[in-house]
Design goal:
It contains eight helices and no strands. It has 228 residues and is mainly α.
């Protein structure tokens, strides 16, 4: 016992000496939730920024890379790590929204031919069918977001409100696309900023918590207190 303890202390000392700027955290796996949440929030922020036409930018192709690699692959990694750690909720949410980001980005990549399939042969602009198809694409994810919102009722207030906002955002976006109401679509994009802020908050709480920093970000835990 004393021999293994001394070996563990030696490894901790070696790490502290080789990486003095990094806090030593003794656990088998890192917490994957902050990475997944940061990727989720950043994807929402990018979609909302280009959705409202920030700085007059109308071409959103620059967001495709972050949507695929950060919003997609990083959420995949976080989801797999949550699976390994036994967190069914985190595993399901991160892989679902990671897949959404990749699938959404694929629509606007010219090489896929998806957007071109809805282009008018004369003007080369998207036909009205494109908005209807995009709405149909979003509706199933709205259903999933509602299911995730119910599942988050025993997590934290911040995460619960974030998923509720995602559900409402998808509802407004799909409805606005189906009826052709630009104001409703704009409202969904505006709600995306609120959602991104809440998800950033939850991610920061996870990253700063556990004694890694001197700061504790409150999230409003909804986990029932044990009575035994």
């Amino acid at each position: 016992m004393s021999s293994s303890a001394s070996i563990h202390e030696k490894h901790a000392l070696d790490r502290t000496e080789s990486q003095p700027a990094l806090p030593a955290v003794h656990r088998r796996f890192a917490n994957p939730a902050p990475l997944g949440l940061f990727a989720f929030a950043t994807s929402l922020m990018l979609i909302s920024l280009f959705g409202v036409g920030a700085r007059g930018v109308s071409v959103s192709n620059v967001a495709l890379g972050p949507l695929i690699f950060f919003g997609g692959i990083c959420q995949y990694i976080s989801g797999i790590m949550e699976y390994i750690s036994g967190n069914t909720f985190g595993y399901t949410v991160f892989l679902t929204f990671g897949s959404f980001n990749v699938a959404y980005a694929m629509i606007f990549i010219p090489g896929t031919g998806i957007l071109a399939a809805y282009a008018d042969p004369t003007t080369h602009l998207p036909t009205p069918d494109f908005d209807q198809a995009l709405a149909l694409f979003i509706w199933p994810f709205f259903i999933l977001a509602v299911i995730f919102t119910v599942a988050a009722t025993r997590s934290s207030w911040v995460l619960l409100l974030a998923l509720a906002c995602v559900s409402l955002e998808f509802l407004l976006l799909a409805s606005g696309l189906m009826v052709g109401n630009d104001q409703v679509i704009l409202a969904s994009r505006g709600l995306g900023f609120i959602t991104a802020f809440l998800v950033y908050w939850a991610a920061t709480a996870g990253l700063w918590g556990g004694g890694i920093t001197r700061f504790t970000v409150p999230v409003g835990s909804l986990i029932p207190a044990r009575t035994d």
